[in-house]
């Protein structure tokens, strides 16, 4: 069931459309380079291969950047620039997030690459593909970016180019809109999130107008997903419900278990639980169980859980702690038979004992877990209860906002 961890709010990014990165002609430019330039290029490319073979992603990123700078800086740009750029973008896509420590240099490298391609007289599709894939890579490695960095600039350029390159309603335009909508949906800026929703809406309209309902189903699902996530972030639950329900109504979705379908069910559990519509939430809990096998050997993650309650007295005294609770996940995915197994308090690294404070975090933990919703275990097609499930509720000052919030908020709730 680990597939459910982070499913509801995890960013779901459209893959770069193959039509944009394959079969594009690479420009051929007459070469009149000095031996020093040629040696530099050969040594840099060799260094890339060595560092990749040694799984040194930090060095690989640096050498790729050096190779692109060198190739683009030649006059005319080196004819292998497009190939090096393609390999660099593939490297960024395949490299684990943040492992190359290069996020803050991606934008500059992509601009150097595209400037070089333009000087070499490359096809405009090559530059578009570089911006498009670069925007996705920048999102993938965004943990390396400094605070306040606008990681959407490459996405904005790619969108402007797609309007000139691809006809309205074409599948290439739809792919570009959905890909960049995925990038923009991760922005911290409200206007960028709104633009993401608008792009997803436009893409869905184009799909409905130009393609049969049984075609391009994954793209339709992604469009609904992006719209639903936007409305959910704005706490517009009815609109979000409509988008996620619309996703499940896309032809073929009832028989699928891809990440968009699973996320739609999980988000609907979230919405209905927040509104207290228990029976509707149960339907989608069971739908997830039917698609994802329940494992008694893995830790179970709730599909829905309310914001954590942090007792005000503990906050004032800077007390942290944790509570281990054992419970049953019943056939509807709700929790029952809750029992405290152990509790602990501490200030800094020192243990702390206070009967009243212990009771406060135990009560808060029981209240929180009583609202959890899980995907129940299904045996021979029948939802079945699972006993003796345990979880630890952690009260950490580092994770607390120290401010009031309602149950629908992602902030910690404060209780006096």
Automatic annotation (TrEMBL):
GO biological process, one term: transmembrane transport
Keywords from the named record: Signal
Pfam families for the chain: TonB_C
Positions of the TonB C-terminal domain: 308-397
Signal peptide: 1-21
InterPro entries the record matches: TonB_C (IPR037682), TPR-like_helical_dom_sf (IPR011990)
Name of the protein this chain belongs to: TonB-like protein
Organism: Umboniibacter marinipuniceus
Taxon lineage: Bacteria, Pseudomonadati, Pseudomonadota, Gammaproteobacteria, Cellvibrionales
């Amino acid at each position: 069931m680990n597939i459910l961890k982070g499913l509801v709010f995890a960013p779901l990014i459209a893959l770069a459309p193959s039509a944009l990165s394959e079969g594009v002609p690479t420009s051929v430019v007459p070469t009149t380079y000095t031996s020093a330039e040629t040696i530099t290029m050969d040594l840099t490319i060799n260094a890339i291969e060595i560092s990749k073979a040694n799984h040194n992603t930090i060095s690989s990123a640096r050498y790729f950047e050096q190779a692109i700078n060198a190739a683009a800086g030649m006059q005319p740009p080196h004819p292998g620039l497009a190939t090096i750029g393609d390999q660099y973008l593939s490297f960024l896509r395949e490299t684990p997030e943040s492992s190359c420590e290069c996020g803050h240099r991606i934008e500059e490298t992509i601009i150097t690459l595209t400037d070089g391609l333009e000087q070499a007289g490359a096809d405009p599709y090559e530059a578009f593909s570089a911006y498009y894939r670069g925007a996705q890579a920048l999102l993938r490695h965004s943990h390396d970016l400094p605070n306040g960095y606008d990681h959407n600039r490459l996405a904005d350029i790619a969108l402007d180019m797609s309007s000139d390159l691809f006809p309205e309603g074409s599948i290439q335009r739809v792919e570009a809109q959905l890909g960049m909508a995925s990038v923009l949906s991760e922005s911290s800026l409200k206007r960028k999130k709104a633009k993401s929703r608008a792009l997803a809406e436009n893409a869905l309209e184009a799909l409905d107008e130009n393609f049969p309902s049984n075609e391009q189903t994954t793209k339709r699902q992604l469009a609904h997903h992006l719209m639903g996530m936007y409305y959910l972030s704005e706490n517009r639950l009815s609109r979000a419900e409509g988008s996620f329900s619309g996703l499940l109504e896309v032809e073929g979705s009832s028989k699928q278990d891809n990440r968009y379908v699973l996320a739609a069910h999980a988000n609907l559990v979230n919405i209905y639980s927040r509104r207290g519509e228990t029976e509707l939430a149960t339907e989608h809990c069971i739908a997830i169980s039917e698609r994802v096998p329940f494992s008694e050997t893995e830790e179970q993650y709730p599909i829905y859980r309310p914001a954590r309650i942090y007792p005000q007295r503990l906050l004032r005294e800077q007390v942290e702690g944790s509570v281990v609770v054992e419970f049953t996940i019943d056939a509807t995915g709700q929790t029952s038979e809750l029992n405290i197994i152990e509790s602990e308090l501490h200030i800094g690294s020192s243990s702390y004992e206070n009967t009243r404070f212990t009771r406060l975090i135990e009560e808060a933990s029981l209240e929180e877990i009583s609202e959890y919703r899980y995907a129940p275990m299904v045996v021979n097609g029948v939802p079945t209860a699972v006993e003796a499930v345990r979880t630890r509720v952690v009260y950490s000052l580092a994770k607390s906002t120290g401010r009031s919030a309602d149950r629908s908020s992602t902030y910690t709730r404060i209780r006096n």
